[in-house]
Structure formats: C-alpha cells, structure tokens
Amino acid sequence: MKIEIWSDYVCPFCYIGKKQLEKAIQDTGYDGQVELIYKSYQLDPTTPVDSNVSVYESLAKKYEISFEKAQEMTEGVTARAKEVGLNYNFSNLMEENTLKAHRLVKWAEQQGDVTALVESLLYSHFIEGKRIGQDEVLLTIAEQVGLQREEVAKILVADTFKEEVEADIQEGLQLGVRGVPFFVLNRKYGISGAQPQQVFEETLHKVAEEEGLKPKLTMAGSEDSGICTDDSCKF
C-alpha cells in the first residue's frame, strides 16, 4: 500500500495528521505493509528566509486582527495537538521559509528512508521552536538523524533539488491539492486535512481489502509464558 503525503513543515495540522495516520496504521495492524512517500508543499513561499516575525505577528497581519486575537486563534489547534501527544507552544514559533527543508528531504530520499528526518523537522519547529529555515539548524537536524553534515551543507548552499520540490507542488495541484495535509492512498483515495483517526482506519481497510492485505496479529502477554514447541515445553 502506498500513501503519498503532501505537507509543509510549518503547518500545525500536518504534524497532527501525520500522528493520526501513523496511529491508524499501527492500530489496524498494517504497519510494515505501508510505504509512506513525503511530498513537498509550501504554504507561503514568499516568506523571507531571514524573517524575525513571530507566528502571532504573522497571523495578525494576514487576517488583520489584533495580536491577542492571533493568540486565541491557535488555542484550538494546540488542544487538538495535545490529543495526539504533541505539546505545541506557538509563543516560541517564528514564521519560516521551508524551501531549504523541503530541498533537504528531497536530497535525503536518495540516501534512504526520510521518516526520521521529517519527524525531526516537525518536532524541531513545533515542539522546540527551532528556526528550521536556517542552515545551521538544518545541518544539526540532518546530522542528528545520521546524514553527513558536509554533504548537507553542499546541498543547502548549491540551491539544488528546487525543481523536485516544485514538481511535487505541481503534481499535487493536478491531483486537487489545495491545502495541506493531503493524503493520497494508492492514487485512488484522497484524504484532505487532519481527519479523525477513524477516517484513516476506514480508508486503510478499504485499500487493504482491494490489495488482499491482511493485518498483523497484535500479540498480548509474554511470548514465552506457558508454551510448548515441537522440541520441548517450558515448565
């Protein structure tokens, strides 16, 4: 089963949706049978790389509201994040240009699995309040997940993999992506937004049935408690 995920690393609902999908895969027993493919999407590509504007200030300007109203706007998504085990702290967040983060992931895909990198980018931004649009932060994140710092530095400076990021965005638009997160399962089913876990589970079961996949057994108790094998019994 293949699931493509269009998301941006500064989208609060993208992190929530990611956690809900992962929990749905685990709870339905399809872990190990699902290939996750991360696709790029930029909510605001015009954000200056060197911006020192807080998320609250950015929201206030965008929606023409007060700073206090902007703070109130984030309370709902903060509560939703907590439901999936994420402790958002918007007071620490700055607006970020995510192009370099997306380019980094596109390069890292050629090195292997990017699951840890994607998780680290989201965690670093929303939980730790780190500046994921800045080179030094990206270098540290990349190094922590096992990527070569020197190679990553070359990628960030050379401005490579920009075309791959743009290709993802255009591909998403052609599929009907107008916001993120957006999940595409086997190029047949689409899920828009951080839907309830039940929605993910129902769609996973539907795709699995079409593919003839069976969920794995969830083992309870101790594996070696009171069992006889072909060779012996453990007394």
Automatic annotation (TrEMBL):
One of its GO terms (molecular function) is oxidoreductase activity. It comes from the Bacteria. Residues 3-204 form the DSBA-like thioredoxin domain. Gene3D superfamilies: Glutaredoxin. InterPro entries: DSBA-like_thioredoxin_dom (IPR001853), Thioredoxin-like_sf (IPR036249). Pfam families: DSBA. SUPFAM superfamilies: Thioredoxin-like. This is DSBA oxidoreductase.
